[in-house]
């Protein structure tokens, strides 16, 4: 027991601080004034950073301070670019501190630093994006002839976002979501203090409902990781096992890893629900990271009486859809429900804003990789997803999309198995981290899955070509007849 506690001391402290953050939520929510909430939240955030990081607390505090200064010193036109490179530059320095004669920080401090990067860079892009959107809107209003367009969804920005230095400080260091996420916009943070939703949402009920599965995740993680430890995959005993055993071992490694992520993310969501941050009326069609996507400005005008009787959700701070993570058929769908808050950040900050269309996906994946770290395992895991997706998309359209009944269930199971196997194979690299360790395992299974991917892709391309050539072609006469029937 004592050996286990000593080995996992940092994780136990981190878990305890997450539970403390959940427990303190109702008291934080009950504070009567906005300023009391803001300063208390920031003080708690700084205290958590110091407890987790010790002397290394200087890194997240200093980097956030430099980022805030950059946002205010640079013009609104370029603040997002300056802040992006500054924050990621400091992230490089932080992770290579030993090269500069400084001690490396713990993994827990690294998690805090990663969240700080998301928040500071994210708010800089919000400031710039809202400025561009309002300038575009003003230009359209000044046009002599303007079309009235009815939109089903709000634009990304419907009002100007321009926080002062104090608010940037509070957003960067507020304890809610600081330890391990989820990421939420500055707009969500500001709404928390100025809109009445947290008073009327069933925060306690949502928190209890969210927390109830955590013991299961923790138990499964401890059981799986002790029965099938990661280091065993590098031993000679493992290499002497059958090929099927070696091929399937990453399944249990990835299963244990998922339970660890589920428990951490679920606790992180519970910190938000306990404090009431991220509560919005359900008719706003709230989206992870973003918040309301429909009628946001009308929601802001909601009266106290309307707010009292509204129905609420916490979709804005939902990171994981656990059931879907386990059951969806395709890797593409799996990526949509895994760590949704971070994926939202990558989409709005990198993918949507990068100017060269053909490079959007590659740049988004590259930023995701370097945000996680410099280890080869992150590249092997994240950057190889598109290659599997290329083959998967072909088979999905050819066989699964239009299938029905038992045929669809059988094809769906096969695709689910291949998707899960692919994720497990990639997760092995993510967990092993360094190139030499990854090479040891991949060599033990002859790097087979990359070959399988390549063969799947070639066969898929061939089948797709055959399918296209076998479809009946419309002649000119058929087209004319079709057009006449439409007119009549």
Please tag this protein with its features.
488 residues, mainly alpha, two-stranded antiparallel sheet, 2 strands, globular, disordered C terminus
Provide structural commentary.
It is a single chain. The protein has 488 residues and is an all-alpha fold. The chain has helices at residues 2-7, 9-23, 25-29, 34-53, 58-73, 79-95, 107-142, 165-173, 186-194, 197-200, 203-211, 214-227, 236-239, 243-275, 296-300, 304-309, 322-327, 331-337, 340-351, 360-372, 376-382, 385-400, 405-432, 435-444, 448-470, 476-487, and strands at residues 280-281, 312-313. It has a domain at 14-140 and 157-194. The longest helix has 36 residues, at 107-142. The termini are far apart.
> What ranges have pLDDT less than 50 throughout 5 or more consecutive residues?
479-488
The overall pLDDT average reads: 90
Portion of residues in beta strands equals under 5%
- The count of strands amounts to 2
Pfam families: MBOAT
Subcellular location: Membrane
Main location: membrane
Membrane topology: Multi-pass membrane protein
Question: Outline of this structure?
Answer:
This protein has 488 residues and is mostly helical. The protein has 26 helices and two strands.
């Amino acid at each position: 027991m004592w050996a286990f506690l000593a080995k996992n001391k940092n994780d136990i402290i981190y878990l305890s601080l997450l539970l403390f953050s959940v427990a303190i939520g109702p008291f934080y929510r009950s504070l009567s004034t906005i300023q009391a909430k803001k300063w208390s939240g920031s003080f708690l955030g700084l205290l958590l950073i110091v407890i987790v990081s010790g002397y290394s607390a200087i890194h997240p505090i200093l980097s956030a301070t430099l980022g805030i200064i950059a946002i205010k010193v640079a013009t609104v036109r370029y603040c997002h670019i300056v802040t992006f490179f500054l924050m990621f530059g400091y992230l490089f320095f932080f992770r290579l501190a030993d090269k500069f004669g400084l001690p490396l920080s713990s993994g827990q401090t690294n998690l805090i630093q990663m969240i700080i990067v998301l928040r500071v860079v994210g708010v800089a892009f919000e400031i710039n994006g809202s400025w561009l959107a309002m300038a575009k809107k003003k230009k359209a209003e000044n046009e002599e002839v303007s079309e009235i367009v009815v939109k089903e969804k709000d634009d990304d920005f419907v009002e100007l976002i321009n926080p002062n230095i104090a608010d940037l400080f509070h957003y960067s260091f507020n304890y809610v979501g600081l330890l391990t996420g989820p990421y939420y916009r500055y707009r969500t943070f500001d709404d928390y203090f100025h809109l009445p939703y947290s008073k009327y949402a069933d925060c306690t009920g949502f928190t209890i409902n969210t927390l109830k599965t955590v013991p299961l995740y923790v138990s499964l993680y401890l059981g799986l990781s002790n029965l099938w430890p990661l280091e065993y995959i590098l031993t000679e005993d493992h290499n002497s096992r059958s090929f099927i055993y070696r091929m399937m071992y990453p399944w249990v490694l990835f299963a244990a890893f998922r339970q660890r992520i589920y428990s951490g993310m679920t606790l992180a969501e519970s910190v938000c629900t306990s404090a009431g941050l991220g509560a919005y009326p359900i008719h706003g069609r709230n989206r992870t990271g973003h918040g309301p996507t429909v009628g946001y400005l009308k929601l802001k005008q909601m009266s106290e009486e309307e707010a009292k009787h509204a129905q609420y959700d916490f979709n804005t701070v939902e990171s994981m859809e656990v059931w879907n993570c386990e059951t969806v058929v395709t890797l593409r769908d799996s990526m949509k429900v895994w760590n949704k808050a971070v994926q939202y950040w990558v989409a709005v900050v990198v993918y949507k804003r990068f100017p060269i269309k053909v490079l959007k996906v590659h740049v988004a994946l590259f930023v995701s990789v370097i945000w996680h770290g410099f280890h080869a395992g992150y590249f092997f895991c994240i950057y190889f997803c598109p290659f599997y997706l290329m083959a998967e998309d072909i088979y999905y359209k050819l066989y699964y999309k239009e299938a029905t009944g038992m045929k669809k269930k059988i094809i769906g199971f096969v695709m689910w198995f291949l998707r899960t196997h692919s994720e497990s194979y990639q997760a092995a690299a993510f967990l092993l981290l360094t190139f030499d360790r990854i090479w040891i395992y991949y060599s033990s299974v002859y790097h087979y899955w990359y070959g399988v991917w390549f063969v799947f892709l070639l066969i898929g391309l061939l089948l797709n070509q055959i399918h296209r050539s076998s479809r009946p072609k419309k002649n000119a006469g058929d087209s004319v007849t079709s057009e006449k029937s439409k007119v009549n």
